[in-house]
Amino acid sequence: MRVFVTGATGFIGSRVVKDLIAAGHQVIGLYRSEEKVATLTAMGAEPYRGSVAEPDSLKEGVARSDGVIHLAFNHDFSRFAQNCEDDRRAIAALGSTLAGSDRPLIVTSGTPIANITAGEPAKEDNPIVGSDVHPRAASEEAATGIAAKGVNVSVVRLPQVHDPVAQGLITPMIAMHREKGVCAYVGEGLNRWPAAHVLDVARLYRLALERAEPDAKYHAVAEEGVPMRDIAAAIGQRLDLPVRSIAPEEAQAYFGWLAMFAGHDMPASSEKTREKLGWEPTGPGLLDDLARLSR
User: CA-CA distance, 249 to 189, in Å (whole number)?
Assistant: First the structure.
């Protein structure tokens, strides 16, 4: 299969490209800046210039492919809501070229939008909140819109995706801990974040593409929920920083934009994903990778 991958040089996307090629697929990798051409070529991918900020620039790459994996996303979380709306437009552009064909499109979302019952894990078949509640739902709203036009679209929802270098939202949290000289968590720190190793996540994207099931929802979750108190303790031990609880009313001052996530309980299940795809995560756990952080 010839696969067009957006975000092909990113943390997850670069692993997806390698996994696809190792499995015998051809890859067209989206790039924005010229220095990424060598990276894509070295991985064995065909470079394709374009940008999700200019959705029409994606259409030729889609037209030349047998399937699309959409991973590109602006991770400047200080403008999170706008980035999610930009993703809505990018998905609409991808879908406009795929409409009426069986060629699969895999879009990316997050597990928290399916956390609809307090204390219970998000499940693949849960109803989701709207983008007025959680901006990331814009991606799935866009997927629903293009599905109605005949696009074979499915969704991979991400937890905190990690290796020893990057860990999703935990990476900027670590930077805050370093700056403030203390690893903080909110209240008792029992709120949980799901997680998965980046290589396991890359394999899941490939399996989802190969299955090409319309309207499928997959959770790339290896660990259902790691308590924030344990995450802070692991970081503190590795960086030799004190660990302490802060009151909920202190969260905004400490975490800034990250306060909207820091105290939330967001466990997620991948039971149905594993059953459908035969996906079994094998990578290290989140706390294991945090124990190997660069000092």
Answer: 14
